[in-house]
Amino acid sequence: GDSVTQMEGPVTLSEEAFLTINCTYTATGYPSLFWYVQYPGEGLQLLLKATKADDKGSNKGFEATYRKETTSFHLEKGSVQVSDSAVYFCALSERETSGSRLTFGEGTQLTVNP
Amino acid sequence: DAGVIQSPRHEVTEMGQEVTLRCKPISGHNSLFWYRQTMMRGLELLIYFNNNVPIDDSGMPEDRFSAKMPNASFSTLKIQPSEPRDSAVYFCASSLVLAGGYEQYFGPGTRLTVT
Hints:
By secondary structure, chain A is mainly β.
């Protein structure tokens, strides 16, 4: 079945540091890929998405590129801010095998210190 | 758009009581999902609906849990009787199923505490 593996957290960085959160996936077909962010006390929010190989999703300075050859969708940001402290979830949706449901990774807690 | 609306935001109840959580999806969306989030288990999909029809309820923990979607703009998740181990944050999410992507939009959640 489908699965998503994220790098284990927690991740702690200083402000303005470079961020990478690794995400790899297993799927039988051609999934769409997503990054969600959850701020403390809130629901998950869609951060960015990519629907086909080599697509790059971007939002709020975050980027991720759909790499079919390495089955990866790593999240990056060049300069993090304290306000980026949150839990980040990688997810996939594979229409052919799972309809409209999403398969989520375990989540990675990010803390950014001033 | 108002986004996904959940009520109540917080619920504290005693063991054995019935609990009903409510969700209003984004207008025009045709899929609805109920999740549970705890520190121990993370984010779990409980059940989801397409066009008001339950498609997969394999994540519902036991018969004490039930979910309904009587129309496209309303869904409930009921726990009867509630137990302390049901304490968690329950999220509702909705989606518009189209070719090319199935992003879900989450509500703010209901924090349930069963004492």
